[in-house]
# Entry
Amino acid sequence: QVRLVESGGGLVQSGGSLRLSCAASGRTFSLYDMAWFRQAPGKEREFVAYITWNGDRQYYADSVKGRFTISRDNAKNTVYLQMNSLKPEDTAVYYCNRRISTNQVPWGQGTQVTVSS
# Structure
């Protein structure tokens, strides 16, 4: 069973930066496109960004485009999310998983990101 462990969240002031990491267990990490999602209090989980299996393409939600960068290291079974110019509306629990819902594995615990104004 693949396990996902997110880390790197915290409390940051508006305009600040954080780098999130998501480590996956198992041997199939490099076969799948990976994505970051987030869930704010009282809201549905939403897509943030994804990266193709080999890292050659990335796609971002409009709300984070130009501020966030997704990357991956297949040798380390890890996907990253560099978040710059953070805004209070970025406050949420951030999760990673495979991009395609029918391929997704059980969700990890997520990592809390709180941006103060």
In short: The radius of gyration is 13 Å. The mean pLDDT is 97. The first strand starts at residue 4 and ends at 7. Residues 80 and 96 are 9 Å apart (CA to CA).
